[in-house]
Structures are given as C-alpha cells and as structure tokens.
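Data deposition worksheet. Section B asks for the primary sequence of the deposited chain exactly as it was used as input, without tags or linkers unless they were present during the calculation. Section C holds the resulting structure in token form. Section D is free text for depositor observations; keep each observation to a single sentence. Incomplete worksheets are returned to the depositor.
Section A, Depositor: J.P.
Section B:
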Amino acid sequence: MKISSFIIFISIVLLVYISVNYYIYSRGLAAISKTSVLRNYFIIIFLILALAFWIGRILESLMNNIFTDILVVIGSFWLAFMLYFFLFALLFDLLRLMNFAFGIFPQVIVTNYAKAKLIALFSTILITTVIVVCGHINFITPKIEKIAINLPQKKSQIKTLNIVAASDIHLGTIVGKSRLVDLVDIINRLDADIILLAGDIFDEDIGPVIKKNLGDDLRKLKSKYGIFAVTGNHEYIGGAEAAVKYMEDHRIKVLRDDAILIDSSFYIVGREDKDKQRFSGTGRKELNEIISTLDRDYPSILLDHQPLNLETARENKIDLQISGHTHHGQLWPLNFVTSMIYEISYGYEKIDNTHYYISSGFAGWGPPVRTGSRTEVVNIKINFE
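Section C:
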C-alpha cells in the first residue's frame, strides 16, 4: 500500500474512532454529577479502555508479550462495547430531543432528572455487558453448517465429495491455541475428503502465531486430498509472503491465481485476494485467465475470499464458489450493512448453474463477539450426477 494511501486510511479510521469515543465519553460524563467522585473513576477507566487497543497493537509489533496480549484483548472487547454504548447514547439523545419537542418524559423523570440520568448510565453499562458476554459465548461456540448440493459429474471419476470449509479464522492474539484446537477437532470429526480455507487465516501480523507455535496444530488437520487455501485481505495487511510461507511450511497448499486438478475428478481454483492491488501494487489475474488452460469437462470449485462481482463465476461457468470476508456483519446491526453491500452477505444460494456459499467465518476481526451472526464451520457434501 502506498504510504500516502495508508496515512489517509489511518487518519480516517482514527478520526471516526476518536469522534465516536468522545461522543460516548461526553454523554457518559454528563450523566454524573460534577461533585461526584464517580467522575474521576469514569474518566480513568474510559481512557484506559479507549486507548488499550491502539497501544496494544503498536506495542505488539515491537515486543509481543503477556502485557501486549492483555491490552489487545481489552481493547478488542472495547470495540464491541463502544458500538452499543454509541447506539444507546444516540437513543437517549433522540428521546431527549423528542421530550424537548413534545414533552414525552413522565413527571417522575422530570423532577428527578439527575438521578434518572445516572440510572440510565448504569442500566446502559449493565445491558451492554450482558449483550457482549452473550455475544462472546456465541463467538466461541461455532455451529456446523451442513449443505448438500448436486453438480454435473462431467468427467469426474468420483460420485461424491465431502468438503469441509472454513474462512476468517483470524489466528493471532485473540484467536489462539484453544480456538484452533477446537477448529481442528471439528474439522477432523467431519472426516473431510478435502479441506478448503477461504482466506483470512491469520489476523494480520503472524508474529503471535509463530510465538504460540500454532502451526503444530494446523499440521493435525486431516483429509483425503489435503488442505487448500487462498489469501484474504488480512494476509496482505500483515504481509502475504510471510503468511503464505508459514501455511506452506505447515502442509497447507495456497493457491495464488492458480488451479489444481484433484484425483482426475475436479478442479480447485484459488484467486488472490482482491486487495492484492492495494497492498502490493500489482493486481490479481482475471478469472478467465486463470482457467483458460483448464479442461472444462471437469467440475470446478472456486475459492475467492471477498464475495464481490459474483457474476464473474457464473460467466466463467464455475460450479461452486466458496467465500468469506463479510462475517455477515459480526455485530448487530452491521449485518444489515453487509447485506446492502454484498449480493450475498451470508449463506447458500444458487444463481443460474453456479452454487455459492458465503461463510460467516470461524472467528472474526476485532472483538471476540458475535451478535449479528454465528461463527461456523461449513460441511458441503457434493453429489456428482
């Protein structure tokens, strides 16, 4: 990524982050009496929470240790708290505006306004905490999504194919060894013919992955035909070459604008992530270029991390496309936003003769919390007809 583009991007992110936090801070502080000792506690705790993520990420790149891990975890959870505190603050300001215009507050609130504001503050903290805790439980208990589809047999030598797919694992500081052990156990219990990883295997910098030696657990994945992966945008954010080498060193074949024929029966086609251009300065190949030399009399399965321009797969007669990236919003109500951005934000759909599955992912970026979707591993059973 060009330095100027990176500076602009970070500046926008920081501006939004600071603005949202200041709004929450000002509304929370306004609910506490100026003479109350609670104001000092509120200011100190708020500053620690709001700064933890950024300080942790910066220090993590310089010296990865238990202190930086704690800061990143605290800061990551704060991102979820921040969203819901922001929504509650907006709600209360809307109610205040309506009261100013129409006098909707009952007399008991009007006569005890200072007390009502304090009750509203603590109620918001309590409700948001319950939401985040429930969302974390949802995050760490993935479901197994089972799909059965029929594909033309063409020249395939096999009758059935048992695919286990996962995307958006985001291995790193937040998603560490215990979650990876769970993933390996789930996948191996499904007795996969082939394992497909649809990008964002790592959460940017692979330093924490190397430190925790997570590659040893990746080696425990078992399948008949092996493990195949593609890059996601987070591989490029953290350094794609290092990420790819780490996967290749641990028995994961990464397809980078390439295709491979499996057991004289079907092709796995893997595209580089769309953001390759933004981070490396060189674009990825067009899909028709990647498949131009393939024998199209074999079924084809495409891995493409970001589910954009889905018509490209249809135009090139791809039988099945597996993608991730969207997290289906991860935090409510952001799932409504991803549903507006992407033709398919989540789940299975068949359009013309092409089947699509867009996974919500095994984990997620930022807060280890899911309130707008569920984490999952996908089990796709194909019958070749």
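Section D:
The domain at 143-384 is CATH 3.60.21.10 (Purple Acid Phosphatase; chain A, domain 2).
The longest strand covers residues 143-151.
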